[in-house]
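Researcher: Please generate the 3D structure of the following complex. Treat every line as part of one assembly.
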Amino acid sequence: TAATAQGLPPLEQKDQYTVGFAQTESNNPWRIAQTKSFQDTAASCNWNLVYTDAAGSAAKQVADVDSMIAQGVDAIFLPPREEQPLLPAVLRAKGAGIPVFLVDRSVDPNVAKAGVDYVTFMGSDFIEQGRRAAEWLIANSDGTEVIVELEGTTGSSPANDRKKGFDDAVAGQSGMTIVASQSGDFARDKGRQVMETLLQSHPDVTVVYAHNDEMAIGAIQALEAAGRKPGEDVTLVSIDGTRDALQAIIDGKLGVSVESAPFFGPVACDTMKAYAAGEDVPTWVKVEDRVFTKDNAADHIGEAY
Ligand code: GYE
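Model: Done. Output below.
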């Protein structure tokens, strides 16, 4: 088949598959919505789903993938929590004849390649998400800004790429300076704590760019606790499009949330079927994202998670 010619393990065509989904953590609504999407799809796509939750530990996620390999699952869907530590597990799955589909995060592209070491990367263009957040800011600014950046999980592909997309766009603006950039691990409480600390050293902050909505909500809490007015004296921009973020936009506290859709189940089902049928699966199954602002947040909050 086309698959084996490229060195990828083939996938038999059959009515029911045992499918591994090795989740990174479950401490935010995005992850919970993604897990639910896989669980719903297990029913509609006739999967026997082997689900694990690494609880925020790359080491546990490696062990979870190894246990799926030992169980002999038919295929593995994996959001690698960080780019480097999950690489050996991806290669071990390939070596064991199990096709791996990366979802929503990638591994180091200099070491492992889609279409060679794993079937495909299914997910958003994170560089573009960061750039779109910057473009909204540039269009809604008087040109002079003191920016604090709350980064996602250190070493994860969305943190690396959302930083690059935003920072590169802002670098072209002479009046805009990123004065601090620190990880809040994509988590609300961590975002709040980091923002509290950064407010001490940068009380003149006018913009917070958070790599996801949960950290933006945490930053809003920290700003309000310090007597600042998010949406008035500090502009917040972030990424995901969660329900809480859309509500914060409606409330005037968050300026923009660039969408990063978590509903991978249906596309995972289709992609796996196409692969088993020997069809050409693109090396990047790209998710198209929208942008939520005060102009459309109320229209979309009903469908948000
Ligand atoms: O933005 C964040 C989650 O990898 C795209 O991970 C995903 C990101 C998402 O924890 O909220």
